[in-house]
Amino acid sequence: MAGVNDGGGGGGGGGGVVKVVEPVLVAHPVKDQLQNVSYCITSPPPWHEAILLGFQHYIVMLGTIVIIATALVPQMGGGNREKADVIQTMLFVAGLNTLLQTMFGTRLPAVIGSSYTYVPPTISIILSGRWNDPNPVARFEKTMRAIQGALIIASTIQIILGFSGLWRNVARLLSPLSAVPLVALAGFGLYELGFPGVARCVEIGLPQLVILVLLSQAIYLRNRIIIRILNIF
Prior knowledge:
With 233 residues, the chain is mainly α. It has 9 helices and 2 strands.
């Protein structure tokens, strides 16, 4: 802040008017390209690489969807037909959510898949004795209707929290230090479903596990020629 005396000189008698010059705030310029980041908002990947990256997201999402349907549908009384219907429905809704998310809101380049947040309350609904029926198909339909109604109510509450801005205050308290244990606990809860499935077919499960570990540990080689060509991994 600076004051400028506009008016009488050194020997004069009149009082000068002091003008206050407000400081000019200059916004921090946005960088077009961040360091160590392959693609930014203003530098998207080429279309052929975007298709491969999108397919990679789809493969990751497909595994989570299959695990959820495989774990919950048999407990609801459904068979392979009902399991296939649930997987198809979840894939369709995930694609629709991804399409809407890329057009509105934050527009993050990510696939919106299934959430493990609703698995514990879904299991509580399944294990409650209100939906028991001698016919497995009828039991599956009744349980599915109850789960759908609960999800509609829960999603309505989430929409209210999101649009009201209340969740912003909660998100400030969630640091990476507190988020990592939550994600780890969700993964540990699926241990009894994942590793027994790997052990049933060692010929496929063990090489798949070894390849997963090797690729996850070889990320530091991404600047080499082979990894640069296969950067989909």
